[in-house]
Design brief:
GO terms for molecular function: ATPase activator activity; protein-folding chaperone binding. Pfam families: Aha1_N, AHSA1. Strands 1, 2, 3, 4, 5, 6 and 14 form a seven-stranded antiparallel β-sheet that branches. A hairpin with a 4-residue loop joins strand 12 and strand 13. The protein contains ten helices and 14 strands. It folds into two domains: 148 residues, Bactericidal permeability-increasing protein, domain 1 (Super Roll), CATH 3.15.10.20; 157 residues, START domain (Alpha-D-Glucose-1,6-Bisphosphate, Chain A, domain 4, 2-Layer Sandwich), CATH 3.30.530.20. The two termini are 26 Å apart. By secondary structure, the chain is of the alpha+beta class.
Length: 327
């Protein structure tokens, strides 16, 4: 049994159906008045799409929220003179990471009715006033998720308060680090392939020991737990590896267990034969481990795609097995 399994017992509860009902009841009916006439307003009529997963975990007496959802809403509006409009609002990512990193919620809006002057005015009210109202609802979700399900995980109110106090007392260990991308783009390396001078970086604090996180990242029997695909991997210098069904490949360059791993790294969309260099660093904290991934040698123009891939397949993959936010 790994050191983590011995000392960091945890259990989770799936809360996705409850979350869909919660978002439906708290979002549908939200409205912004257009005048003193009670019928003149823009409002949310229906939740038309909900995709994603919501879980609450209890690890070592501390609560962990893991959720990532895409929510689509139908809206309508009417002015005092009876002019109407309708459309959609989509939030492609409502996630615990928005709250952890104090990130704005991205949204997409669409006007489906005829684009009259009154309709366009209502559309602007949707974007500038109704959407911020909905974001306030999202800010309250985590608290109600915990209040509704913590006891099912054997977590009483006293323990919950203690866990929150502990996390607040050590913010450097518990607060995930926002992902960043460097700004410079100019260099040319690797033959004729133009590459970015920037390093693509993503990082997060995970609720796991350094030794066990190292094992999750390098043990071919455990990698599928978070990658959701078979893995070919051996943490030995010169060994080739293949992850995510062959979508990532390369070879091991340097190993300093359990803190640092350097690999050549490529995806099939990159120019043939071109590899970047991925450096993985693990830093043990008080009750979490900081995972930092630094990818250099990315082909010019592929920086955003590379960052999204690291965040989605590595960071979120690991969080999906219960290594998410400590409260």
């Amino acid at each position: 049994m790994s050191t983590w399994n011995k000392h960091y017992h945890w259990k989770t509860k799936g809360c996705t159906p409850w979350a869909k009902e919660w978002f439906t009841s708290h979002l549908v009916g939200q409205k912004v008045p257009l005048s003193k006439d009670p019928d003149a307003c823009v409002k949310v009529d229906k939740l038309t799409g909900f995709e994603g997963d919501v879980e609450l975990g209890n690890r070592k007496g501390k609560l962990i929220t893991i959720y990532e959802c895409a929510i689509t809403l139908a809206w309508s509006g009417q002015t005092e003179d009876g002019t109407s409009a309708n459309g959609t609002i989509k939030f492609p990512e409502v996630s615990h990471e928005n709250e952890d990193n104090d990130e704005a919620y991205l949204f997409e809006t669409e006007l489906l009715s005829e684009s009259s002057g009154a309709a366009l005015s209502m559309y602007e009210v949707v974007r500038k006033k109704l959407v911020p109202t909905l974001e306030e609802v999202f800010h309250g979700f985590r608290k109600e998720l915990i209040e509704s399900h913590a006891k099912d995980l054997g977590h009483d109110d006293e323990g919950q308060n203690a866990a929150k106090t502990s996390a607040q007392a050590a913010p450097s260990a518990a607060a995930p680090t926002p992902s960043v991308v460097g700004a410079s783009r100019s260099d040319k390396t690797g033959g004729s392939v133009s590459t970015s001078a920037a390093e693509v970086r993503v990082a997060s604090h995970l609720a796991i020991s350094q030794a066990d996180l190292w094992d999750l990242l390098t043990n071919p029997l455990r990698i599928p737990m978070w990658s959701k695909a078979p893995a070919q991997f051996s943490p030995n210098v010169g060994a080739n590896f293949s992850l995510f069904g062959g979508n990532i490949s390369g070879s091991i360059v340097q190993v300093t267990a359990p803190s640092r791993l350097t690999q050549t790294w490529r995806i099939p969309q990159w120019p043939a034969g071109h590899h970047g260099t991925l450096t993985t660093e693990l830093t043990q904290g008080d009750d979490s481990t900081k995972l930092e991934l630094v990818l250099s040698g990315v082909p010019l123009g592929e920086e955003d795609h590379a960052q999204t891939g690291l965040e989605t397949y590595y960071i979120r993959g690991l969080k999906s097995i219960g290594l998410g936010t400590i409260l």
